[in-house]
From TrEMBL:
The keyword Oxidoreductase does not apply. Gene3D superfamilies: von Willebrand factor, type A domain (3.40.50.410). It comes from Polyangium jinanense. The chain crosses the membrane at residues 6-28, 62-80, 606-625. Keywords: Membrane, Transmembrane, Transmembrane helix. This is VWA domain-containing protein.
Length: 631
């Protein structure tokens, strides 16, 4: 017998002291106070009867003392927590990995798979033997231990109650490595996986997970697999008309049978489109919505069965996206007059254009972009990014060559080589532009040549000290460039590139990954408001807030009272939307076994029974005292 609680030597010291106190108080209880009474003859018979029963009275008092000492002994033994040596050596060390991925939100197990899993884990906790120890961990995009390795039932039940399903897939390999590392060196190690089995292979960047002598057990959850899902959702604004946008989304039928579904699109909370489509078995169908309007900020998509029934996983029936912000860009145009330039800038209502004569440069205020048309003054602070049209002189961050003219009958002066993938050439066609006169441009090694003639580069881009620039080496009035639709597109693309407005498809963040959210580089931390309303402090590094997101919906990131950014996150994981439960779990070529024996109510801690004995002896003492057996 071993004492795993208070050591035996300490118990003996406490017992000797407490026993002495009990005996002293017992002796004090036996002392009688002398009382003088008259008529001694009246008491003689009573005293004779008392003497006849004195031996029995002493026995009764002695029995009372024994009961009190027995109570003390039982309490001391309970503090010592005595256990047989076999129990100490043979107890199991168990890690329970509870799957909290999005598929565990499925409602085929009432009220949901995650609730059914928690009920199963509670039964295991209550069925632990006295020598078993357990650690409970939540398994989603990360692995979160919710308790220590303990046999305390209240602590383990509190850990189970804190489990909550997320909108991310589970990192099974990471969870298994955590379990194997935690159990290393412990006796009878075991990992119990409580999941629907949609976990994927136990492989990560380090290769397959090896569990060694750790026993792996699997408790399957779930029964059905009826589900349709939104597995892709993105949006972009049109570059020339930012009040209009287009949407790309994808819907998936994970069932073996065809289904009819209703697909709803909401802009700023208002229904903008409702369509009914038919999906074949296992079909993934992309949907394209061009030329939409009516929303200024948020978009949401919802999918549902056309007959009004519900599928088993509501988590992937809803997707979110945020339209790129429509902000006005402040543009300063330094020119002596250029009708083609001024007319092209009028096409975008979200440009706030200020035109000034070169002699009055700079204008008051700060600008996002400054366009130098045929002039190259010293750049003033607050000018923003720079667009040089027909630059000359020395106040430029590149070399300007001597003028070349289109006089060679064998070679046309124009764009002979183009980097058509560059953002400022998006939707443009410049290969047939005719130029009368140009100046070749020579930038530094890091600068990008976007357009080149046979005489040298005539369109380059780069940056100096963090300030972006683009230079066009000819006067557009000496070419047919401004007579083409590519001219305003070139200007607006360049301005969009400078102000970093994304005209590509904007996909929301994907849950279950580490997000790098743009934030003020001056801040060290930011406040992130999650879709459920909770707020978190997140670190900011190099102008990016870092956060592992596991909820779908709209987020708000604040780095100050006037600096708030809104963004969206979605599940959009086709693998996670396939919710068919797996009856078998294989790790490293080894099939997980069934969960071992957990009998609710069976505990082998002796201290529990010692406390029960204390209660029993106390009841006996109370009963005998009031029936005057021990007094």
């Amino acid at each position: 017998m071993h004492f795993v609680g208070v050591p035996l030597a300490t118990l003996l010291q406490i017992g000797a002291l407490a026993g002495s106190v009990v005996v002293v108080f017992y002796i004090l209880k036996l002392r009688r106070r002398p009382v003088a009474v008259p008529f001694e003859k009246l008491w003689e018979r009573i005293l004779r009867d008392k003497e006849a029963t004195s031996l029995f009275s002493q026995l009764k008092r002695f029995l009372s003392l024994l009961l009190q000492l027995a109570l003390l002994a039982l309490l001391l033994l309970a503090l010592g927590d005595p256990r047989p040596a076999a129990n100490i050596l043979e107890g199991r060390n168990i890690i329970v990995l509870v799957d909290a991925s999005a598929s565990m939100k499925a409602t085929d197990a009432a009220p949901s798979r995650i609730d059914a899993a928690k009920d199963e884990v509670k039964r295991m906790v209550r069925g632990l033997s006295g020598s078993d120890r357990m650690l409970i961990a939540q398994m989603d995009a990360a692995v979160t231990p919710l308790s220590t390795m303990t046999s305390e039932i209240p602590d383990l039940e509190a850990a189970v109650a804190s489990i909550k399903a997320t909108d991310a897939s589970a990192d099974f390999a990471r969870a298994l490595r955590f379990g194997a590392d935690t159990l290393r060196g412990l006796s009878s190690p075991e990992i119990i996986v409580v999941s629907d089995g949609a976990l994927g292979p136990a492989v990560d960047g380090a290769g397959p997970v090896e569990l060694g002598d750790v026993r792996i057990s699997y408790l399957p959850i779930g029964s059905r697999a009826t589900n349709v899902a939104i597995t892709g959702f993105s949006v972009r604004r049109y570059p020339l008309d930012k009040s209009r946008y287009e949407v790309m989304l994808e819907v998936t039928n994970t069932n073996e049978e065809p289904v009819d579904v209703e697909l709803s699109l909401f802009g700023d909370g208002q229904l903008t489109d409702l369509s009914q489509i038919r999906l074949g078995p296992k079909e993934r169908l992309p949907r394209f919505y061009p030329n939409l309007s009516g929303a200024s900020k948020t978009l949401e998509a919802k999918i549902a069965y056309a007959n009004g029934s519900r599928d088993d996983l509501p988590a992937d029936d809803h997707a979110f996206a945020l339209l790129p912000e429509r902000r006005r860009a402040r543009v300063q145009v330094v020119t002596t007059g250029n009708m083609f330039l001024e007319a092209a800038l009028l096409l975008d209502e979200y440009l706030e254009v200020t035109s000034i004569d070169p002699s009055r440069y700079p204008a008051k205020g700060n600008f996002d972009v400054t366009i130098f048309d045929g002039v190259t003054p010293n750049v003033a602070p607050g000018s923003g990014s720079l667009l040089y049209l027909n630059p000359s002189g020395e106040n430029v961050p590149f070399e300007v060559g001597k003028p070349v003219e289109d006089t060679d009958p064998n070679y046309r002066l124009g764009f002979d080589e183009l980097d058509e993938k560059h953002p400022i050439l998006r939707y443009t066609v410049l290969s047939d532009v005719n130029i009368g006169r140009a100046r070749p441009l020579k930038g530094e090694k890091e600068d990008k040549v976007i357009g080149k003639s046979y005489k040298g580069p005539i369109l380059i881009a780069g940056s100096r000290a963090g300030v972006k620039f683009v230079a066009l080496g000819f006067d557009v009035r000496e070419s047919d460039f401004p007579l083409r639709i590519s001219w305003p597109l070139f200007l607006l693309n360049t301005i969009n590139e400078f102000v970093e407005e994304d005209v590509q498809y904007i996909s929301s963040f994907r849950t279950g990954t580490v997000w790098q959210i743009p934030a003020s580089s001056a801040a060290a931390t930011a406040t992130l408001e999650l879709p459920d309303g909770t707020k978190r402090e997140v670190p900011v590094k190099d102008g990016r807030a870092v956060f592992l997101g596991q909820q779908a919906g709209f987020y708000k990131l604040s780095t100050g009272p006037d600096e708030t950014t809104t963004f969206a996150a979605n599940l959009v994981d086709p693998a996670e939307s396939v919710i068919k439960p797996a009856t078998e779990l294989v790790v490293g070529g080894r099939a997980a076994g069934p969960v071992g024996e957990f009998k609710v109510g069976v505990r082998r801690e002796i201290w529990i029974y010692l406390l029960a004995a204390v209660l029993l002896v106390t009841a006996i003492e109370w009963l005998t005292y009031h029936r005057r057996v021990t007094v």
